[in-house]
Amino acid sequence: MKSFVFPEFRIIRDEAKCGQCRGCERQCAFGTHTYDPVQDRLISDDYKCAGCQRCVVFCPKNAIEVRPTPSPYRANASWSREKMEDLKKQAETGGVILTGCGNDKPFRVYWDHIVLNASQVTNPSIDPLREPMELRTFLGAKPDVMEVKTDKGDVEIRTKLSPNLVVETPILFSAMSYGAISYNAFRSLATAACKSGTYFNTGEGGLPKEMREKFGKCAIVQVASGRFGIDAEYLNCASAVEIKVGQGAKPGIGGHLPGEKVSAEVASTRMIPAGTDAISPAPHHDIYSIEDLSMLIYALKEATNYEKPISVKIAAVHNFAAIGSGIVRAGADIIAIDGLRGGTGAAPKAIRDNVGIPIELAISSLDRRLRNEGIRNRCSIIAAGGIRCSADIVKAVALGADAVYIGTSALIAMGCNLCQKCNTGKCNWGICTQDPRLAGRLSVDIASQRLANLIQAWSHEISEMMGGMGINALESLRGNRDHLRGVGLYEWELEVMGIKGAGE
Amino acid sequence: MDAVEVDATNLATKELNDRLRELMLSGVEKVVLRNVCGQRYIGTRLYTPEHRKMDIEIYGTPGNDLAAFLFGHNIRVHANAQDGVGNTMDHGEIVVEGRAGDVLGFSMRGGKIFVRDSVGYRTALHMKEYEDKKPVVVIGGTSQDFLGEYMAGGIVILLGLGGKPHKGNFLGTGMHGGVIYLRGTVDKTQVGGQVDISPLNDADKEIVDHYVSEFVQRFPDLGIGKEEILKSDFIRLSAKSKRPYVKLYA
Fold first, then answer.
1. Nearest-CA neighbor of A426 among A74, A29, A94?
2. ipTM score here?
3. Hey, where are the domains in chain A?
4. Which residue stretches of A320-443 are H helix?
5. For chain A, N or C: smaller number of CB within 10 Å?
6. Which residues of A touch B13 (CB under 8 A)?
7. What CATH number does residue B211 fall under?
8. Which of B162, B200, B195, B165 is nearest to B181 (CA)?
9. Are the beta carbons of A285 and B109 separated by less than 8 Å?
């Protein structure tokens, strides 16, 4: 059937610069560029271009430019180009539109409507280059009461403490499974996490056996509805276990790793036959209530001899704060909440773009709910979904989070340009693919260095911003909404976040 | 070595499992639990890096998630079991001299479960297999609805002993791997749309023969012979496709 969809990108080749090296042809897994030996020139098919910019960056002659095409349609405020073309694709195939990455729709980005405080005159600011600045934090349950015994200056803690994760900076890598991303990308995250004193999250694709000894100590392993790659050894090699209930990019639905991506290595890590679909059902079929969730939390505590904190990850949706309260009461040590803009390797676009609530509002609601109920100490909150810079992290912590997960930011650090074609498995940057030729393009050494650099840079910036506010420990920033003010927000939005308007 | 007896009266779940773990770490390989009454996760906290193994006999009724994440131990229950038996178990064996509740063998990847009587809903849900690991569940009676839902691997055998008809619906819904053998028959309205019903071939018969022998060996008190069970007809339920959703997307 003839497709009525227009190309999204236009490839402009400077013929004067092009040396016919055919580098672009080799770089593009979508088959955009082909060499015509008769004309001795490269021909580019705009229709195939994903807009990932790989050929542009790697053209040795700087001869290629890839630009988004302007809409060819008559302007129509209701019928955007995207709406029309998605509809056409569905009329042509009868299928669900799949996409990758996070929600790209113009929902209000609250981070950009919140400003931070700084000390002036009465409360001196702190220079983190000269003075100690504590970014280290502990994730897990804290006791209601701490009993101590002092004996000749020695202090002994009498209360039995719950296991906690120690993070040197409040930035963890979000769950991205081996299978969704390439082995090199997965290993880069693990390497950078260990190097930076933080954690990566295996997602639900298991943890390759050869990585367990070296990287288990900086791994959070996930238990999701598909229960892939899970055995007692996997659970016990890690520092924490996370039950994945939901994901910001696709709340309420399951996952589906298509057979093409289930290579022999992915299959062995997930412990399933190669080439079969790996289906994660929408719910955990042993969890239909808070009591059932509690049963799985304690099953995992038992399986790990009560030595590891158990996290529960949910998508931020309506009334989720009440569910969060239930999760804490069910025995979770950490709640991870993933907001509207959380990324994915593949999700139906209709779900990605329409389900869930912004993380900024969610953090504050959950933190306040748990405080009001007097149970905030019983769990830590990790916020995820739409963290783009260090200032977003400072704001997230001030709204009540203990730490953040970064997924999309980490991918961009490794080379991702958010072309949203993750679901095709043809990632030219070697990140979201199982094709060995493409995956080999990502160097673990370089990518992990880029990730570690990002963590270092953001940690410095967080220290600077905290110092400016006169705060020298992350603990003092947590839930400290006095240091936030809203700009251009409605009253209900200020109320949900518990912050004042600027100038108030 | 003689079996160590533990009286579970008034022990909380954690206390009982603390005790079991201590015994295993001290080198005990056989334990008999008396007066068990609803304690959960028995067998779950027995993973050790050196892969120690233990035989556990249970008198009384164990609670939910018996043998969840089981890593190679053998458990025999001289009574009924509750929900979640063998949840995500890796290897080992569970024998239940009675009936078991819902989601038995959920996401089980290896090992064997034998249940003398019937089981509840969603048995063998999302059961898997991988290389030499092929989980097996043999049920003496029958099951409720959604047997083998999302099933991706392994073998389930329902014997329908005592003339119990298979009345469960939605059998094998979403199934994309593995096989279910039923002694007796079901109507095609009882199975999910992804399921093929077929007679057994010779290879199937060999498998059924093998596991029915094992079943009979484990329940000598039933007083029923292998031949008697095998003389009735069986049917086979299997997935039409390993890729059920391949045409779902644009």
1. A29
2. 0.94
3. 9-71, 171-501
4. 320-329, 349-352, 359-372, 390-399, 408-414, 436-439
5. N
6. 298
7. 2.160.20.60
8. B200
9. no
Selected residue of B88, B176, B243 to mutate for chain A interface (largest A Cβ count, 10 A): B88
Helix axes A290-303, B13-25, angle to 10 degrees: 20
Chain A positions in Cβ-Cβ contact with residue B250 (cut-off 8 Å): 89-90, 92-98
CATH class of A9-71: alpha beta
Asked if B176's CB is within 8 angstroms of A276's CB, the reply is yes
Does B242 contact A276 at a Cβ distance shorter than 8 Å?
yes
The amino acid occupying position A212 is: R
Residue B135 forms part of a structural domain: yes
Closest Cβ opposite residue A302 in set B41, B128, B244: B41
**Residue A98 in contact with partner chain B when CB distance is under 8 A:** yes
> How far apart, in whole angstroms, are the C-alpha atoms of residue A396 and residue A398?
5
- Of B69, B72, B63, nearest to B93 (Cα)? B72
Residue identified by tokens 């970014």 is A135
Nearest CB among B17, B84, B122 relative to A302 is that of B17
Does residue B245 fall inside a structural domain? no
* pLDDT tens track, chain A, 504 positions: 899 999 999 999 999 999 999 999 999 999 999 999 999 999 999 999 999 999 999 999 999 999 999 999 999 999 999 999 999 999 999 999 999 999 999 999 999 999 999 999 888 899 999 999 999 999 999 999 999 999 998 999 999 999 999 999 999 999 999 999 999 999 999 999 999 999 999 999 999 999 999 999 999 999 999 999 999 999 999 999 999 999 999 999 988 788 888 889 999 999 988 888 888 888 888 899 999 999 999 999 999 999 999 999 999 999 999 999 999 999 999 999 999 999 999 999 999 999 999 999 999 999 999 999 999 999 999 999 999 999 999 999 999 999 999 999 999 999 999 999 999 999 999 999 999 999 999 999 999 999 999 999 999 999 999 999 999 999 999 999 999 999 999 999 999 999 999 999
Residue in B49, B126, B250 nearest the CB of A97: B250
Which of B44, B71, B128 is closest, CB to CB, to A272?
B128
Q: Do A299 and B68 touch (CB under 8 A)?
A: yes
**Range(s) of the domain holding residue B169:** 64-239
Task: Report whether A270 contacts A369 (CB < 8 A).
Answer: no
Identify the CA nearest to A233 among candidates A304, A179, A333.
Answer: A304
Contact status of A283 with chain B (Cβ, < 8 Å): no
**pTM of this structure:** 0.95
Tally the domains of chain B. 1
Establish if A350 touches chain B: CB-CB under 8 angstroms: no
| A171-501 has the same fold as A9-71 | no
Fold held by A171-501: TIM Barrel (3.20.20)
